[in-house]
Amino acid sequence: MPGDPQAFLSTESTFSICLLVLAGAHIPRSLLRSSDAGRIMIAIRESELRSELLGYDIHFYKLVGFAAMPGWAGRLTWQFRNVASDDAR
Hints:
Blueprint: H1 11-34, H2 36-46, H3 48-53, H4 58-81
């Protein structure tokens, strides 16, 4: 717990936090997969040539998928850099 190193989460609290994190990751993922853009990305993963022959702009969707990775990595880096260790006091 921030501010009080002696305070620990109970097992039930830890389970609740993990459940919220998993739901927070699963819901956007399932929404993306069921959207048109998600289906096109899955089709590109399965066969680039077939997706391109169907008329999809594979370069755009690959760029969008690739550009999302640095965004998530930057967000996680920012999150964990703001955590102070006991040595920082």
